[in-house]
Amino acid sequence: MTGFDAPSAIYLYIDKKMQDHGLFQAICRVNRLDGEDKEYGYIIDYKDLFKSLEGAIGDYTGGALEGYDRADVAGLLENRLEKGRERLEEAREAVKALCEPVAPPKDTGAYLHYFCAADTLDQAALKDNEPKRIALYKAVSALVRAFANLANEMPDAGYRNTEIEAIRQEVDHYEKVRHEVKLGSGDYVDMKVFEPAMRHLLDTYLQAEDSEVISAFDDLGLVELIVEQGLGALDKLPKGIRDNPEAMAETIEHNVRKLIIDEQPVNPKYYEKMSQLLDALIQERKAQALAYQEYLKKLVELSGKVKKPTATTAYPTSLNTPARRALYDNLDYNEALAVKIDTAVRYTKKDDWRGNRFKEREVENAIREELGEYAMKTPEIFELVKNQREY
Predict the structure, then answer these.
(1) Model confidence over 124-149: pLDDT tens digits?
(2) How far is the C-alpha of 147 from the C-alpha of 171, rounded, in Å?
(3) Which of 57, 184, 354, 363 could share a disulfide with 112, CB 3.0–4.6 Å?
(4) Facing residues of 13 across strands?
(5) 45, containing H or E segment
(6) DSSP calls for 95-126
(7) pTM: predicted TM-score of the whole model, two decimal places
């Protein structure tokens, strides 16, 4: 295995004499990027070979890589503190640019309106604003990593004490914005796999006070937490949301809306009805037709219906699976036909049938045959079947 084939590494500890090919290949290995979390590698030079490193690059371009310009390997080695400061400043500017359009006073509500939806009745806004949220999450994560890389050496990087504290508060502010937007939009569950490493950086270089609040959402999304714990779950939301009744209401509405959107393909008719109920509830809130606590109770009740359809809807006993219930809801509540199609699909489908044109055609034909006089609904029902997790 050559140095170019070897796995990527983040740190290179030089504790012995190295030169020429071996030295150059070791540098390439630690500089190789293999994911978003690695921005560059570190070289810890116990043998004071830094001057030799520059020589190794020169010798290598004149030896095994003869014919390559020096420009081909320019930038292989850079001053870590200079590069760290450059990246931190770039990350700060990137986050500020993303948040610049947020309306004054740039509080929790303003950020939720800009990155989620200005009006929770707008069913398309949450999805349409998803690219802005993803850009925010990535930019703030890059800012936190850039700050963490320099946090213990900022004076050496040229920052004054007042600048260091201002930057720390800035990073803390934008991390809280990121977290509130993720919770407010319902994106937290989708991205929580990335949270442990980020949590470690925040606890180490910013502050750990909020870790207990955030941990409430480690295993459950907001809607799931509400279904399990009722109104008590809302006490676990960040203070910026919790202390703002409108932000609290919009956060729950966005989370319920996102769940409806995500589950819509599994049972279009049922979740269309849930969407209508949510719209009606939002309109009541906007018209101030309900006291705030009464509104929250109704929202909790709706969350249960969205998350657990069987807990609030009485289905015939033969409809004992989610797929059968979805077919029933989308076949004008025809119990016998729903059972027949479910049986036909289970009998016909083969392993890995989705995405295989011939296997899909067999399932579609079986559905068409069972539909009989409703054959015109075959494409709709076939798509519904494809979206069922149990098939």
Answers:
(1) 999 999 999 999 999 999 999 999 88
(2) 8
(3) 184
(4) 44
(5) strand 42-45
(6) HHHHHTTSPTT--HHHHHHHHT-S-TT-TTHH
(7) 0.73
